[in-house]
Design goal:
20 helices; 2 domains; Rossmann fold; elongated; alpha/beta; 6-stranded parallel β-sheet
Length: 482
């Protein structure tokens, strides 16, 4: 099938490449001509395991192209995916300007029937807005007066098809999905559109049916509801972990005890320093605002977000309980900068807020990450200012080098490379032989045997002061403004 993907960000690039891998003729469009030249020169703009090889293979087979020509791109696809960003505005609502701009371009340049697919995460009712804008553009061209069946055979249908990709495992998620959600509303071209989408995804349904067809508004809502549920599990577990420390309870034992209940399960029940990335923070805020706009504030999600923001600074609470409020003259090692392993994405990463708060208190930070170092440096240089960044933050190229001259190690990302380090070597490098593990990578008993002073999240019972909300909130606000 002939496919066009509008947008070569994370979702668009993975979607386009995977559809080409399935044998389709795919054009990936982006308004950024320099980005397209960069991709065509062989440089993948994101880090995702296996993606580089798939791009090279499918370009070589002639079934994957990248273009900055909007007219040709629109005219190429019988199915056009809208996969552009929907960042948060100042109030936390999803910004739809990129989505609506693509809709106008489709209406301006389409010359044949199209299935237009909202792949971006968009608020409930967006498919209707996209449909209306395309109708306006066609009418402006003198080709139509109503949406649906168009004059001159310019039929089209807008379908909602939210993505459920996890960064670091996006290719596997696309190729072996647990569900494919299609939002289709009744209309003159709806039956043809649904049939084309089911044919497109047929290779992913060979073993059993994974496709769920529903209304467009339900499909749009499903995406937000799924991410909000997962974020809720994370914040709930982190809240329990903080309580467990005060009750002398090991949260890992609690996790296994409740996760073994099939009604609960183990996914997203790991205590840590909170969630980050491009999806959960943005989508939780957007869903909250949808509730406010509809006159039904979602009070639970307000608590989920508050817990998460405080949790990002949980390691600072543990540090200041031992070293005091002022950390001037101390240098801390930091392993992990990306918001999760197997990605170079540092958006809303807990590590950034951690570095901001440590440097604000006068500490120096030496950091290492296998792939996200440069992305983190760009973000931190803007967040901290050049003077603080240059004087108090150092990015190193090897994990043990990070530990040199540091009083303690902080872990913010659970990279596989950190799971079985040389603890004896670490002891010899760390002044205080102390680890603050924000991802609970190690067992407290093993750390005790190794002679390391280990502080996990909910793993060792320590009575700590209540989180310093004012200081934490100041740091959070700085990160949000940046």
């Amino acid at each position: 099938m002939r496919i066009t993907v509008m947008g070569t960000g994370y979702v668009g690039l993975v979607t386009g490449v995977c559809l080409a891998e399935l044998g389709n003729d795919v054009v990936c469009y982006d308004i950024d001509a320099e980005k397209i030249r960069h991709i065509n020169a062989g440089h993948c703009p994101i880090y995702e395991p296996g993606l580089d090889d798939m791009v090279v293979r499918n370009r070589g087979l002639g079934r994957l192209k990248f273009s900055a020509d909007v007219a040709d791109s629109v005219q190429h696809g019988d199915i056009i995916f809208i996969a552009v960003g929907t960042p948060s505005d100042a109030q936390g609502r999803a910004e739809l300007s990129y989505v609506l701009s693509v809709a106008r371009n489709i209406g301006q340049w389409m010359r044949s029937p199209k299935v237009i697919v909202d792949k971006s995460t968009v608020p409930v009712g967006t498919a209707e807005k996209v449909e209306a804008l395309i109708a306006q553009e066609l009418e402006r061209r003198g080709l139509t007066s109503t949406a649906g069946q168009q004059a001159h055979d310019l039929s089209y249908c807008v379908v909602s098809n939210p993505e459920f990709l996890k960064e670091g495992a996006a290719i596997a998620d696309f190729m072996r999905p647990d569900r494919i959600v299609l939002g289709v509303d009744p209309g003159p071209y709806a039956a043809q559109a649904q049939e084309m989408m089911q044919r497109l995804y047929a290779p992913l349904n060979r073993h059993h049916q994974r496709t769920y067809v529903m209304g467009r508004r339900a499909a749009e809502f499903t995406k937000y509801a799924a991410n909000a549920m997962l974020a809720t599990r994370i914040s709930f577990m982190n809240d329990l972990a903080n309580l467990a420390e005060r009750l002398d309870v090991d949260i890992e034992q609690v996790r296994t005890g409740i996760g073994s209940d099939p009604r609960i399960g183990f996914s997203f029940l790991y205590a840590g320093t909170g969630y980050g990335g491009s999806c959960f923070p943005k989508d939780v805020q957007a869903l909250q605002n949808m509730g406010i706009d509809a006159g039904y504030p979602l009070r639970l999600l307000s608590a989920v977000e508050d817990i998460n923001q405080l949790q990002k600074l949980r390691l600072v609470d543990k540090l200041t309980a031992l070293y005091g409020e002022e950390l001037k003259g101390l240098t801390f090692a930091l392993w992990g900068l990306s918001f999760k392993p197997n990605t170079d994405d540092v958006r809303e990463a807990p590590s950034l807020l951690l570095v901001q708060e440590l440097t604000r208190r006068g500490a120096r930070v030496r950091a290492y990450d296998p792939v996200a170092g440069q992305a983190a440096c760009e973000a931190l240089r803007n967040d901290l200012g050049s003077d603080v960044f240059n004087q108090q933050f150092t990015l190193v190229e090897e994990p043990y080098q990070t530990l040199q001259d540091c009083v303690a190690l902080l872990i913010a990302t659970e990279w596989q490379a950190f799971r079985t380090p040389d603890f004896e070597r670490m002891k010899g490098l760390l002044r205080d032989q102390r680890i603050f593990d924000g991802r609970n990578m190690y067992e407290p008993e093993l750390m005790k045997q190794q002679g390391l002073d280990y502080h996990g999240i909910g793993r060792i019972a320590r009575v700590l002061p209540e989180p310093k909300l004012q200081a934490d909130q100041t740091a959070v606000e700085r990160l949000v403004r940046a």
